[in-house]
Specification:
Number of strands: 2
Oligomer: single chain
Shape: flat
Structural class: mainly alpha
Strand content: 5-15%
Helix content: 40-55%
Distance between the termini: 67 Å
Radius of gyration: 22 Å
Order of helices and strands: EEHH
Strand order of the largest sheet: 1-2
Length: 86
Amino acid sequence: MAPALRPLQVQSLHGAIVPAKGSSAAAKVMHFLTVPWKLMFAIVPPPGMCGGFPCFFGALFMIGVQVCRVCTPLHSQLHPSAGHPT
């Protein structure tokens, strides 16, 4: 069998080679749900660049974008029911 098609194997603490287990359903769901977050933060510069300032401000900006993305629809749904004037 070609090396790329062979199942992954993991070496245990005692030296025995055992086949790797697949991911759980919960891990697959969480990966699917967090892909947009991971892709968005992939464009943040690395911390070693320019003393970390671009990384800090890039991450701060991305967190702000995500908060606005979640809070704006939530506010528009809760706003009429809260009894606040527009």
